[in-house]
Each structure stands twice: as structure tokens, then as C-alpha cells.
Amino acid sequence: MFKKPNEILALNLFVVLMHFSLPVMANESSPPNILAKTAPIHSFTLTQAIEFALSNNPDLQIASERIAQAEANLGVALSVFYPEISAKVGYEDSNNPSHVFSMLVSQRQYGANQNINNPGYYQDFRPEITGKLSLFRGGQDYQNSKAAELGISAAEYEHSSIRNALIQAVTASYYAYLGALEAHKVAQESISALDSELTQTRQQYSAGTVLKADVLSLEVKSAEAQDAEIRAGHGIELAQLGIANLLGLSTDQTFSVASETLLTKPVLSASFKDLLNQALLQRPELKAAANQIEIRQHQLLSEQGAYLPKADAYVSYGQDSKTPGFSSQKENVTAGVTVEMALFSGLQTQNRVSSAQRKVAEAIELERKTKLAIEQEVKTSLIKLDEALARIRVTETSVTAANEVLRLINEQRRAETVTVTRYIEAEVARNKARANIIAAHYEALSAEAALKKALGDWK
What angle do CA 367, 372, 377 make, to 5 degrees? Predict the structure, then answer.
């Protein structure tokens, strides 16, 4: 049956988003890079990364191979409608009276002077061609072929589902990586500002113009900023590994990511009901679940066909002779039809039919479960996108406020009415607010990608 979106994709995205959620991350100018063993072999924009993943991701390649397997399985199922033809050569040497009599008659060698009770050893060479054709098998062959035909659709739905999930994972990882780089830039700016102020404050403390508490406070904040930069650096490394895995690259293959020059803001215009209807029409998982019900129903009909008789036609052409060779005078042809019906199979047929019925019921419940899961995913994605858009509005306001606070603190600092610690806090807050608005846009774009995946837009 159709498989759910690959767990590896979910794991990679989970790792990336975990580190993206850190308060401070690593710098774009010089991020730590455990993949950077050689010069980058690729530089990807988002579109290029998606195209590369679609052609190189192993999960998608596996799904393509399963489509080919399903097509081959259909060929196997259809092969029963063709005759089976086989050729063989047999040799016998026997003194069994009944066997010898059969050999003599088949070879056209039987005579009145033959002592059939004591014939001695006799030889028979028989080249033979046999043909067999199934005439009727209770409809089992037809039902199995229809199930195999639907199996191709199931494999194609699986491919679509993996493709849909892969594009969403690449998109989310791409924006999470860029967000991590932006956050790392803030971390470095904070460290630079703190180091500069800490140097001046130490000089002022030596001159006796500031308190020891001011120095200690800055040292604490400097240590916190350095700790945040370390965590941000590791977050960037893990984000790179996650993207590399989605692209199907090994750890010794390096790449770079080209940032978006224009950050667009998603627009949410449709209602939940409209989006849900769209998802129910588009999602390959739901189509696969309905497809699986049909497959199980055909398999049930196939099992029920075992109660009906089976009919086969056969023909055999061969020659019998005492020595190897061919002669039209010794050819033997047999043709016929056999009809067979199982009267009692130890309840095997009954149990197989019962098992097939349970599988139909299971497929129906799986379709219902899939529909509920899609409904939940659409609702969750819609809520997260709405939250991300609200965060953009909040961060836009916070940037304006942070700029104004820093301006006022600067004026107070020149008048020496505010501590250096307060000034540093305002500067760091301003830098963080600028990074937050960029991160909010990345988060909204990631949420938009998750909603598109929930709708099945990339199937």
C-alpha cells in the first residue's frame, strides 16, 4: 500500500527548525561549515535547490523504481491470459511390462509375437512440445490483473506524496538556514558592541569613573553572547546537513545557498472550508487510500473465485522412438480440456475470503483516518501561517520602537544620565529587532510552504 511521507524528511526538517528557534544564531559572512572540505560544487537558489532535490533525492528515486515494479507486476498478472508453451526431451529404459507395452504402442512397434509379460529392457526417446491455456479460474485472473493495474496508480500516488513533502521540506530548510545566518549576524554584532564597550568601561573603571558592577555586568552579557554564537554556529552546521540530505548530497560534497534579495509576504485569502475542499481534491494520500479500497475489493473477489470451478485447455505434440530421431510416422498428438473444482480445502478458502473482507474494512478505515489527518494538517498549517503573518506585523512595530529607544538612549548617554549597560541593551535590542523581522518573513514563507504541502499543491 501507499506509504506515508518519508520519515527521514520529517526528521531533517525537525532538526533544522529546532536550531532555527534558538534566540541567536550564526553569521552569514563566516559560518562554520563542516561540509567545506573543498570549494562548493553548487550554489543554489530556492528554485534550483528544489529542482536538484527532485532529480537527486533518493526517496524520490525509490518511489520511481516502485512505479516500474508495479508496471512489471501488472505484466505478471496479465501473463496468465496467454498460453504456456514448453518443450522437453525424455528418455526411459524399462522392463516394466506396462511401461514397455506403452512404449511399443507409442512407437508403432507392437506385434503379435511380442511377449508382453516378459518384454526385457526397452528404450524410449520422446521429444515433446506442450501448450496450456487457462480458460476459466473463477474470475481470479481478471480480478488479480485489475488489482495489479491499480497498484501502478498506488505507486504513482506514493511518488506524488513524496514529491509534495520533499518540496516543502527543502523550502522550509532553505528559509530556516537563511534565518539562522541572519541570527548569527546579530550574535556577532552583539559581541562586537559588547567587546567595544567592555574595553572602554574597563578603562573608565581603572580611572575610577564607573563602578565595578558595570564591568561585571558587561562581562556577563559578553559571555552570554559568545555562548549564543556557539549554539548558532552548530545550528548552521546542522541546517547545512539537513539541506544536504534532502538534496541527496554526501557530507564531502559542498554547496552554498544564495539568499533571496526580495522577501515577499504571503497573503491569506481563502477560508478554511475552501482550503480543506481543495486539499481533499488534490492530496495524493487521500487518492491512494481510495485506490487501496479498490485494490482490496478486487482481491476479495479473487479469493471468492476459488469457490468456482477451473477449466484449462492443453495440447501435446511429441514423437516416440527407440533411438533418437524424428519421423512423422511416430508422432503423437494429445489435446483436451480439464475442469477442476475444489470440494473441500480444509476451510482454507473460507479463511482467505474472511481475511480479504477484513482488509477491505481496514482500507475503508484507513481512508477515514487519512481524511481526518489531512483536515488537521490543513487547519494547523492555516493557524501557523496566520500566526507568522501576525508576527511580521508585530516585528515591524518592534523595529520602529527599538530604533526610537536607541535614539533616546543615545541622547541620555551623551548627557551621562544612563548607564553603559542600558545603552548596550538598547543597541542589542535594536539589532535583534531587525533580525526578527527578517526571521518573521522566513517563518511566514515556511508556513506558506507547509500550507501548500497540506493542500497538495506540489503533487
Answer: 125
Helices (H), 248-347: 272-282, 284-304
Q: What single-letter amino acid sits at 130? A: T
Dist. CA 330–CA 351, nearest whole Å: 50
Distance (Å) of CA 429 to CA 160, 402, 404, 405: 45, 7, 11, 9
Residue-wise pLDDT for 177-203, tens only, equals 888 888 888 888 888 878 887 888 888
Find where cell 549597560 sits: 421
pTM: 0.77
C-alpha cell at 330: 511416430
Which residue ranges form the domains of the chain, and what is each CATH number? 7-82+140-308+343-455 (1.20.1600.10)
Integer angstrom CA distances of residue 226 from 30, 32, 231: 15, 14, 9
3-state secondary structure of 257: strand
Find how far residue 48's CA is from the centre of its chain.
Answer: 20
Collect all residues with Cβ–Cβ distance below 8 Å to 85 and sequence separation of at least 6: 129, 130, 131, 132
**Rounded CA separation 422/441 (Å):** 29
Q: Kindly report, residue by residue over 246-300, the tens digit of the pLDDT.
A: 999 887 888 888 876 667 788 888 899 999 999 999 999 999 999 999 999 999 9
Beta bridge partners of 130: 86, 316
* CA 447 – CA 110 distance, rounded (Å): 90
- Which amino acid is present at 188? Q
Angle at 56 between CA 53 and CA 59, to 5 degrees: 85
